[in-house]
Amino acid sequence: MSCGTCGVSGFAGVVATAAACAETHEPGAAAGPSARPVAASPARPTTLSVAAAGDLFVQPALTAQAAADARAAGKTGHDFTKILAAIAPMVREADVAICHVEQPLARPAGPFTGYPTFSAPPALADAAAEIGFDSCSTASNHTLDYGEEGVRRTLDNLDRVGLRHSGSARSAAEAATPNVFDVRGVKIAQLSYTFSFNGIPRPAGKPWIANLIDVAKIRAEARAAKKAGAEIVLLSMHWGTEYQNQPDQGQTGLAAQLLASPDIDLIIGMHVHVVQPFEKIGDKWVAYGLGNLLVRFEDGSPENTQDSVIPRFTFTEIAPRNWRVTALAVHAIFMAYHPQARLIDVAAAAQRGAHRASYAAIFRRIAGYVNMRGAQAVGLRMAR
After folding, report:
1. Residue 15 confidence (pLDDT) above 50
2. Of 138, 207, 246, 273, which one is least surrounded by beta carbons within 10 A?
3. Domains of the chain (ranges plus CATH)?
4. 266: β partners
């Protein structure tokens, strides 16, 4: 997870590096052969890794867990880092890691609400940044649950913790500026679109506030991102039929249309609350649905709604400024509800502990969903 010039912290690092490398002289001395040489810039990479996670979808029971974790640590408010801790290594090891904030972020004192109108504590943004995410998509069917104020508050909090974002905006100018950021000298863009706002209209005269799926608009934004210097364009799509592991015809049709664009390099899907397959279309990949990374449905809900995956895509520069995924490893993740809400690295849990057999079965289930469209035969592997 290291965007070299992402956000405030990245800029500060650039300034510090520049200061450290500046030439020094005695007062009044002229620069010349005796001056200390400036350190060479790191070589531009030929491979980059991208990790992606599914919906950060917070129900009131998960908010209560985060509050309990904060109290146990002697803090006020909410702490989601304990819930997320198991995925930190796989997120931080990637060159860039992207997430999906499904619902608006509330004021620090709330209210924190659940179905049908959702909001989560602003501490969710702090935890996402601390775990290692770099950029988050925000276009979802819940983006407008709290209207324009909810959009602004969400993006203000992401800015506060240094997380980049795409999918919603506070102004027309912000919406027209692609989310392009530097990763080890290579520019990457993240785009974000959703199929619906659950019937909530966008404010009059502000269609730019959040992105609805529109093939022509997506292609145009991807083209603008490439013109802005992006070499890799990641497209986050909030789409599909809830609780259905197989992608629907809308998803498969859109994936084929969008990946035919030379400006879109990868599609990452969210929304349906379960894991959906990966598919290679031509020489590009689509992950139809990563599942809910964070979730706390009612006890007795279908167990597969607790499944998710974190894929790690390795991009290789196959020609100047032309990148393709050349390796794909998928981590199986499970949201355990008891005794505390915690994410579980399924492969690790299947190898040790009292519940090895149960997690081995969960691993097989998730791997089966991932491979529903033959992804393992064309290069995907399940991380163990």
Report:
1. no
2. 207
3. 44-382 (3.60.21.10)
4. 234, 285
